[in-house]
Amino acid sequence: MVGMDRRSFGKGMLGLGFGALVAGSAVGCTSATGAAGSGTGGTAGSKTLSLALDMAYGSFDPAKQQSAFSLVLPWQACFDTLLRYEPDGTVSPNAAESYTFNDDKTELTLVIRSGMRFTDGSAVDAAAVKASLEHMKNGGGSDAGRLADVTVTVKDASTVVLTTPKPKGLLPTFLCLAPGIISSPKSHTAKNRDTTPVGSGPYKLDAAATTTGSTYTFVRNEDYWNKAAYAYDKIVMRQMTDITARVNALKSGQINAAPISSQTTTEVQSSGLTLLKNEVNWAGLFLGDPEGKVIPALKHVEVRRAINMVFDRQAILKALFQGQGKVTNQIFHNGSPAYLAGLVDRYAYDVAKAKKLMKKASYADGFSFELPAIPGLEFATPLITQQLGLLGIKAKQAKIAANQVLPALFSGKYPIFFTFMESRTPLWDLVQTVAPEAVWNVTHTADPRLQRLLDKAQVLDGAAAAENAQAANEFLVEQAWFCPWVLPTNFYATDKTTSARPYLGSVVPYLRSFKPAA
């Protein structure tokens, strides 16, 4: 395979376009005509909201819930969280009516709202909160690591204290997400916990109108403490991993809202639908093994830098994302205090120089690795295979079932993979991605130079926090821990009867934000 100059690269990549995206997202697809019912989210007097999920939903076991992508929506319906994540990334009280951090951020005290009950009739109290947090911590789910060092103590019937051996400034944010789910302690050991959620959230699962792996129906929980915050009496979520099916269902009124792609924005807008834009993600390659534990070649910074230099980011932005977004080489979105505009051109597209770096690292002939074929993201596989092939790097595709994607990635078996990664605050991005215990640090790599910056990040505020985050960013770019390509504009679509708000770092609006359009 021969190298391509910038013009040839761009022309070749434009050929992938929408057709490749559709083909890549067809695994486990749901046809538009198969989505029974209609979306009636915003009509006058409407009581039903119909949403599409673009990923397979697996289990209602509280410990197995995840904090990313559209997988947050089913559990947000039936489980409440201790704290609430706001659209701008700030944290507010929720099931815990108040929370206080000590000065060194090693002790978080939560006062639980009185009078709440789970749908099995049991009380939501401090003991239930402790049981819920420990079920998440020990339940084997992908978010368990976010509570791994947390000790929970019941101070009294309505107060719990969470302590950590080191500062954990992001703990309140975690308690807004899957780690903050509260659920009936009886359900934690129930045989039907995968199919029968027992929470205290705004809705209850309607089992009779639910087909696991296809359609999930939720009806209002009349005993929910904050019922007025949710506009709909019934919510239907349809699993539709195929982008064509989602767009067709939106256009025909079968659903009210769905994640869409940059390739479909023209079609969606011309159909009278509403686009929500959110530019807080990066897309590119994870190089999650800088110590070479799984892929020995990645231990060499020259190899990681060479990989960064073999991708033409401008051509990728144009070809795969229709120019919607910005090029980058950083894991922080361009509005983040950690972002450094001066580093954007650190790895200019240069195949010849990349080959020299490979030779310097004694990998002139390249190496082989397993590239996971992630349903819905396979549109980038031809690009990855082609460009890495210019360095003699052979990407062997490994098929992964749709409902096993995150567990497979978190296992560390596939440290090089293509993804879209949410970016929120600098502390979030560091803690979720590069801290040794981070869920996305899939090989649990630790570096003392980076660790010093991570430790400071947990306790610093304001300008000092921003300066420290920028230092961490510069380290990650110079050491080529990742291979980001672009900051693509994320698109979510609603019909004209439905409104929603984008959330910092989330590819979908949170359930609470959906309302009938004014």
Automatic annotation (TrEMBL):
Taxonomic superkingdom: Bacteria
Keywords: Signal, Transport
Cell membrane keyword on record: no
Domain Solute-binding protein family: 91-419
UniProt entry tagged with the keyword Transport: yes
SUPFAM superfamilies, A to Z: Periplasmic binding protein-like II
Similarity-based family: Belongs to the bacterial solute-binding protein 5 family.
Protein name stated in the entry: Solute-binding protein family 5 domain-containing protein
Annotated source species: Streptomyces graminofaciens
